Amino acid sequence: MGKYRIAVDIGASSGRLMAGRLANGKLELREVYRFENQLVQRGGHFCWDVAALFAEVKQGLHACRDLGIQPESIGIDTWAVDFVLLGENDELLTEAVAYRDPRTDGMMEEVFEIISKERLYLETGIQFQKFNTIYQLYALKKSHPDILARAKTFLMIPDYLNYLLTGKKANEYTNATSTQLVNAFTKKWDLDLLEKLGIPAEMFGEIHAPKTVLGSLKQELAEELGFDLQVILPATHDTGSAVIAVPELQDTIYISSGTWSLIGVENHFPICVTKALDYNFTNEGGLDYRYRFLKNIMGLWMIQEVRRNYDSVYSFAQLVELAKQAEFDSIVNVDDARFLKPDHMVTAIQQYCQETNQPLPHTPGEVAKCVFDSLVVSYQKAIGEIEEIFEQKFPKVNVIGGGCQNELLNQLLADATGKEVVAGPVEATAIGNLVAQLMAAGEIAGLEEARTLIQHSFAVKTFTGTRGSRV
Ligand SMILES: Nc1ncnc2c1ncn2[C@@H]1O[C@H](COP(=O)(O)OP(=O)(O)OP(=O)(O)O)[C@@H](O)[C@H]1O
Ligand SMILES: C[C@H](O)[C@H](O)[C@@H](O)C(=O)CO
Ligand SMILES: [Mg+2]
């Protein structure tokens, strides 16, 4: 029986501490602590309450102790692109402004005046999302040049939580690539790009690969908890950890399904060709310097907001059941910018249907059905683009993450594509986080052994298509 290790997986909608250990040839997983995450308003911006998130991490570690779990190590992963800046005395200079904040509106276009979109893609291979770190920093440089001038340390959200745990500052590779400031070939900060944009390179630290052992807890924290442990860098970008846990990648497209739907394949080299640029695919960094060739699709954020619009009176499972009963066929372009952060998602969906001369959804079931049908249309388009770029067919789609519990969505995808849709594991991100720790500790030899272990440890569910394509 191996010793427990803790994966802290914090998503845009929820966070969890999962304890895992090797037991009888399998990876045993148990949930220790779960908490909600949400945007807060700070200084006129949408932000993350990183102090509250750190308090939840500590609460989760206390829960380990109360369960008699003395973990050997911990690894933290979160969403991408967002960051904080520290000053001369390691004081916080900024709030953790969230990527859905409108401060980056128009910034991408201004950056293209300095470096062309094509050149930026050729060097970084990263998709163009208006909220990428590069545009957040450019916005900050314009609005608060004084803050940027005083900044001594750039830490992404997991990096900052690691700093609070250990006092150590380190930028982790997979998440660093999401900034669109890392060169896809050198795998280092693109100093030429930073200089062109007038972003101080000095605040960026050495980039550390997943499986790096960062160090132990700060003494006062170990004393508070009554135990110490090793802090290990997993793939701190949550999708980076999730992709590690895709049980079967052979001829398979994955969809990491949560707040976002991240659809793609694992690759051994960056694909920065024009077609990939035109389709807005990304080459985010993966474990062992593999690449996550994928694209963001708006994802279940939309149903999260729909649920919130109905005062959260329906569970996600109930919304799925209502959608199953709804006879409704209007489709929206889920990737339309209006759905990134609308004041009211249901209204935004209705307005889109009105503008496109389609019937408006009125009941929760009709709205949910519209969201799920529309997501499938976007998934199907992305699958076609991937197969065009790779010049091959992928017979299987593996949906991982919380969204794989949406059996209607899985079936709709199987029906529309005629492909085998494999659902699971639900907690792929935490599992990927844990196996990186096990690899760092030498308990697992490498990625191939990790994926075999995951295949043997977690059941999946398969959906096959019953009718033709939707489009
Ligand atoms: N029982 C369920 N039935 C259907 N869908 C579900 C169910 N439980 C969760 N979901 C879906 O899973 C989504 C959350 O997925 P997940 O827990 O992976 O997200 P997260 O990790 O909190 O956020 P992020 O995507 O930012 O990592 C919810 O938005 C919901 O749509
Ligand atoms: C903002 C990013 O696109 C987002 O974090 C995505 O990369 C992701 O991983 C969501 O879980
Ligand atoms: Mg998640």
UniProtKB/TrEMBL annotation:
Alphabetically ordered keywords of this record: ATP-binding, Disulfide bond, Kinase, Magnesium, Nucleotide-binding, Rhamnose metabolism, Transferase
Domain of life of the organism encoding this protein: Bacteria
Q: In which pathway does it act?
A: Carbohydrate degradation; L-rhamnose degradation; glycerone phosphate from L-rhamnose: step 2/3
Q: Where does ATP bind?
A: A12, S13, S14, G15, R16, T259, Q304, G402
Ranges for domain Carbohydrate kinase FGGY N-terminal: 4-244
- Could you cite one Gene Ontology molecular function of this protein? ATP binding
Pfam families according to UniProt: FGGY_C, FGGY_N
Function text: Involved in the catabolism of L-rhamnose (6-deoxy-L-mannose). Catalyzes the transfer of the gamma-phosphate group from ATP to the 1-hydroxyl group of L-rhamnulose to yield L-rhamnulose 1-phosphate.
Which family does the similarity line name? Belongs to the rhamnulokinase family.
Query: What protein am I looking at?
Result: Rhamnulokinase
Organism of provenance: Ectobacillus ponti
Question: Which gene holds the coding sequence for this protein?
Answer: rhaB
